[in-house]
Amino acid sequence: MKPFVQIATRPEDDVALTERSAVLDFTGLAEDELLWARLDRDPFPALGAEDISGIILCGSPFTVSDPADGKTAAQARAEAEIFRVLDQVIAEDIPFLGACYGIGTLGTHQGARIDRVNGEPLGAVQVTLTEAGRQDPLIREASLPGTFTGLVGHKEAVNTLPEHATVLATGSSSPVQMFRVGTRQYATQFHPELDIPSIIERARAYRDHGYFSPDEMEDVFAALRGESADHPPRLLRAFATLFAR
């Protein structure tokens, strides 16, 4: 099998390692089947469609809608690399699944308006598939129900999508929870690479990044512990199954 590539943009080594472990677990891929590209520090490797099965982009402390003069060097470098990779993804029809930061980057690349109007605090939300979502091959492979719980925490979100994008899932406070461009380039607002314990661990690492009030952190965690969000990680296993070659 040709390997998949996981793109990471988290500068914190411990958080990045935890994220990688989660992607390996949920995809079911072995270490040598999932290359790791940390674009906050290194360029994307010289790989094309003939070399890989697909690309997974996880969440990030970065937000594409930040003013350019407010972005760190690591963020600017990561975004430039991601947009270069997305040029290749679209041109070569490489399977792509981006989570959270992925919806901002793929959306921006494809002409969506990404801003802070539909941001959501850390928590569990109801996600509902559209008719197109119920018919989508990746979602069908994942056996997602018509409505399920997704885990979110994001400052920016899709405001408007270009006409060529297909909305696959919606939510009440963030209307675009998943979309597709082309036939196999996907982005989700919710996190398929996180379950309840891992989102709590992630939130502790980013407690002062504005996703929730630090004074309310334990109350937020208590509410999360009362939720079940077992369906979204199925997308990662389905992506690895459907596009492996």
The helix content, as a percent range, equals 25-40%
Number of strands: 11
User: What is the name of the CATH superfamily?
Assistant: Class I glutamine amidotransferase (GATase) domain
Poorly predicted residue ranges = none
Protein name: Glutamine amidotransferase
Enzyme class: ligase
Domain Glutamine amidotransferase: 49-194
Keywords: Glutamine amidotransferase, Ligase, Transferase
Structure description:
The chain has 245 residues and is of the alpha/beta class. The chain has a single domain, classed as Rossmann fold, CATH 3.40.50. It has 8 helices and 11 strands. Strands 2-1-3-4-11-10-9-6-7 form a 9-stranded mixed beta sheet, with helices on both faces. Strands 5-8 form a two-stranded antiparallel ribbon. Strand 9 and strand 10 form a beta hairpin. The longest helix has 20 residues. One of its GO terms (cellular component) is cytosol. It comes from Brachybacterium avium. Keywords: Glutamine amidotransferase, Ligase, Transferase.
Features:
245 residues; alpha/beta; Rossmann fold; two-stranded antiparallel sheet; 8 helices; 23% strand
In short:
With 245 residues, the protein is α/β, with parallel strands linked by helices.
